[in-house]
Design a protein that fits this description.
Arp2/3 complex 21 kDa subunit ARPC3, 12 strands, alpha+beta, binds magnesium ion, single chain, Beta-Lactamase
Length: about 650
């Protein structure tokens, strides 16, 4: 079967089903005992018609027309009249449905929906009643004098059908209940049936207003089972009211003629059902508003939480949009770069780079557009022009259509680490160079020493003046070579310029590099900075000196201890300067080792040591015109080592060379 044929089949089935239900509802309407010439005071079929047109669409109108025709075709009225009535009862709901389309969509959850149902729902019944009652009059089924009231009852009966059935059809979902709630619904139904039975049957309680004694049950339905509950409760009450009034029982008989009974009862049904529906709609609206408020509160809490995370993290968070414009930076990110977040918003990351890095950054961002997530080192230009090195972890964002809409990058400041790494790399080179220099001088100096000795012995031999002059010359040249070779030992001097710097920050920088190890071995750092410690030094070399001393102290305190860093002024020297002390609570140094400490390659750490740390430190300190000394204690419980460095404030001319 083709798709179209199948669709047509479904539509025919829909229409036939509607016809069948309409027919059944029509038969119920006609069964109402005081139905007079096919005019019923309660016409549920009108609700079925409007409900199915709104749920399935206007296309099911043939089903309604068929059902409507069949309902009247089985009554004594002529078929032509039945056909005319069918036209009226189809046209009315179709017009009403066309007007309500888009305005009233299942399920009913707002008061506005009920208002639409009231304001536009009456148009259908008015059309159906006008055409229907007129047709009956034309067919001689009702008298001219009875036409107006028949039309009224018809229209009102249709309208009640709409009020009772459309909300029920729309809100079937309200009856998807758990077991305890089903029990409650059953209880409500029992109360309604028993109450109705009592009120409409008991002659003791006759009196029109007593009908409203059932209102609390309708309210129960509305409060606990929403629109569906209100509609169902009203339907039960209405059914009873119609049936019993028609049988000549109940409170509505107090009003003279039959017509009056009917109208009083119709008003009762309208008031009861609309009160229930409105109440249920208001409650549904409130429930929805409460849910929305709760959702909003949850959302706000979540947002607050995320904001807290983003603002308190030690990482810089940076978000850009599809055009690489900054849409968000956290306070930490801005602080890293020396800006305020407001100054960064709307600007591109390129504005925070050194010109030579821009091309690389553009390539990075292009990669991001391709969806690449990555982690890498990057360099920014801070507001004051200095460098910020960061480890950047970036991920792109895409819209649901796959378009690049921005990216998020997390930054960790690694400037210090990077600088320390650089220093360490330099030190590494220095150490290698030192080792090379030491071995060369060792290899060369020994034979030279031998040659010098031989020349000395040669000079003691008898020889002529010419020969003595040659030997003296050779000796002089050899001594020169020896001096050169010795000087190479000192060739690993730092190229960086010396500047007047305070020592405590350099110490802090250096110690921060060992933070992890210090913590891991449970070593406490005590800073005792008694002076600003301003001296003319090369920062890199000083870092190297301190690094060597601190790493030795760490090696000596594998089981924890205290590392004390002290800086003080020293005035009572030949010339004033600064004293730096690096003190540990390690095991101390045996006396036998003391005299070898500053020798190259002297180490007591066979696998990890190089024996160059103290030697290099001494070389550097002496190059600065200073001195390094050591004292150590080995008494158990009071052991430790203190290295003490003196650096003169004004460096003697010979030391700078
Ligand atoms: P390395 O550390 O590579 O062995 P160093 O020149 O730094 O070379 O130190 C030489 C030796 O001096 C070390 O092997 C160690 O025996 C001793 N030493 C240095 N500092 C300390 C200290 N703070 N406590 C105990 N021993 C030390
Ligand atoms: Mg060492």
């Amino acid at each position: 079967m083709s798709w179209d044929a199948r669709k047509a089949g479904v539509r025919v089935a829909e229409s036939l089903a509607v016809a069948a239900i309409y027919f059944a509802a029509g038969r119920v309407g006609l069964a109402v005992p005081f139905t007079n010439a096919n005019v019923s005071p309660l016409w549920p079929a009108a609700g079925i018609a409007l409900g199915s047109l709104l749920i399935f669409g206007l296309r099911v109108w043939p089903g309604i027309a068929l059902g409507a025709f069949l309902v009247d075709a089985f009554t004594p009225i002529p078929h032509l009249t039945a056909m005319l009535i069918a036209i009226g009862t189809t046209l009315g709901p179709v017009v009403a449905a066309a007007l309500l389309r888009g305005k009233l969509v299942p399920p009913i959850q707002r008061l506005t929906d009920i208002r639409h149902l009231i304001l536009l729902g009456w148009i259908g019944p008015a059309i159906s009643a006008s055409i229907g009652a007129s047709s009956l009059w034309l067919a001689g089924q009702i008298s001219g004098s009875g036409l107006a009231s028949a039309m009224g009852i018809w229209a009102f009966g249709d309208l009640l059908g709409v009020f009772l059935l459309v909300p029920l059809l729309f809100n079937v979902q309200d009856f998807k209940l758990t077991r305890p709630r089903l029990v409650e619904l059953g209880l409500l139904m029992i109360c309604l049936l028993a109450g109705s039975e009592l009120l409409f049957r008991q002659s003791a309680v006759t009196g029109a207003v007593f009908g409203f004694l059932l209102l609390p049950f309708v309210i129960w339905g509305a409060v606990r089972f929403s629109i569906g509950g209100a509609a169902l409760a009203s339907l039960v009450v209405s059914g009873f009211a119609v049936w019993e009034t028609a049988r000549g029982e109940g409170p509505f008989l107090a009003y003279g003629t039959l017509i009056h009974h009917v109208q009083a009862m119709q008003v009762f049904i309208a008031v009861t059902s609309l009160s229930g529906l409105c109440l249920a709609a208001v409650i549904a609206e409130r429930t929805k508003a409460e849910a929305a408020l709760a959702r909003e509160a949850r959302l706000r809490r979540a947002q607050e939480q995320y904001r807290n995370i983003v603002e308190t993290t030690n990482d810089g968070v940076w978000m850009i949009d599809g055009d690489f414009r900054t849409t968000f930076v956290n306070a930490r990110m801005a602080e890293m770069l020396g800006y305020t977040p407001a100054e960064m918003l709307g600007r591109q990351p390129f504005d925070f780079l050194f010109p030579e890095d821009v091309a690389r950054k553009q390539a990075d961002l292009e990669r991001r557009k391709q969806g690449v997530r990555e982690v890498f080192y990057t360099r920014y230009r801070k507001k004051d022009g200095s460098e910020l090195w960061a480890v950047l972890s970036a991920s792109p964002f895409f819209s649901s259509k796959g378009k690049f809409v921005g990216a998020l990058a997390m930054h960790s400041d690694v400037t210090l680490l990077r600088k320390t790494e650089e220093t360490l790399r330099r030190n590494e080179k220095l150490i290698t160079a030192g080792r090379l220099a030491a071995s060369i001088s060792h290899e060369v100096n020994n034979p030279l020493e031998a040659v010098i000795n031989l020349l000395y012995l040669l000079k003691l031999q008898p020889m002529n003046d010419q020969s003595r002059q040659y030997v003296t010359l050779a000796e002089k040249e050899i001594l020169r070579v020896s001096a050169i070779s010795k000087r190479t030992l000192g060739f690993f001097r730092d190229q960086s310029a010396r500047t007047e710097l305070p020592l405590p920050p350099i110490l802090d920088d250096t110690v921060s590099f060992y933070e992890h190890e210090l913590a891991a071995h449970g070593v406490k750092v005590v800073r005792d900075y008694r002076a600003q410690g301003l001296v003319l030094v090369s920062q890199g070399e000083m870092q190297q000196v301190f690094a060597n001393l601190i790493s030795n102290a760490l090696d000596a305190m594998k089981d924890g201890g205290q590392l004390t860093l002290r800086v003080s002024e020293e005035a009572d020297h030949d010339h004033p300067g600064v004293r730096v002390e690096v003190e540990d609570t390690g095991a101390g140094i045996p006396d036998s080792d003391m005299e070898h400490l500053f020798e190259p390659f002297f180490t007591t750490k066979p696998s990890t040591g190089t024996g160059l740390g103290l030697w290099v430190a001494k070389e550097i300190v002496e190059k600065h015109g200073g001195a390094i000394t050591v004292c150590s204690q080995r008494e158990p419980g009071n052991s430790g080592t203190q290295f003490s460095i003196f650096l003169p404030r004004a460096v003697a001319a010979h030391a700078v060379a």
